[in-house]
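User: Can you help me understand a structure? I only have the sequence.
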Amino acid sequence: MDLYLHGKIALVTGSSKGIGAGIARGLAGEGAIVIVHGRDADLACGVARQIREAGGTAHVVTGDLTDERQVDAMLAEARAVAGEIEILVNNAGGSGGGSDWGTTEPGAWASTYDANVLAAVRVAKAVLPQMRRAGWGRIINISSLAGLMPPAANPDYSAAKAAMLAMSASMSKAVAAEGVTVNTVSPGTIHSEKLDARFREVAQQRGVAPGAPWAEVEAAVLPLFAEVPIGRVGTLEEIADAVAFLASPRASYMTGANLRLDGGMLPTI
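Assistant: Let's start by predicting it. Here is the structure, written out as tokens:
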């Protein structure tokens, strides 16, 4: 299926590694001109190099999205190298990790909210005027299953990701009549490099040989982490495919939606 993304200019924040890098590669594979963003220039350049070696087009910008001046500078550079942003994927964020209701501090909540929600707001607010003038644009915010099914640990992260769902719904209503759609993707357990390393570490503790095939590692460890009805973790390619569809003209009647890519983990409709 042709998604009609050839030549569309897409900025993927936090795309120097993990899910963001997978999304950047996926959009480039559909013909989009991708702007890879991160705070580590070397990592971002590595993703851009992968895209170019696969025949795609990629540029690199850097900047801390919790700093308004760096956001402005990053977007100015993006426009200079590629043009006006037509597709924005707000993927940057994450959590400091390790907190629970015995150790969590308000300051950590503020930092997590800033890095996830306010970072997305800063970039979206800056690119929306041009999208509205053009009468076409796509914003895809990357939330998490944690925003819908929060665990006991890392409550600041779950709360921030839940806020992104509400933010996306509000934004979608504000621009729906102007050709701009705003949707959310909520990944569950996804096979990133970080997850791979963690699963292999636990697998070895349980007697799985170092260097064992991923299928063996996954079978031994996944039930310890999550009850996934499909019985496996998701892939970066599956996240990228969902984002590419939402970014495309083929998804023009979808806005304010949240796509769960969780293998059926959420026990509700």
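Now, to help you interpret it: Residues 191-233 form one domain. The longest helix spans residues 106-134. Let me know which part you'd like to focus on.
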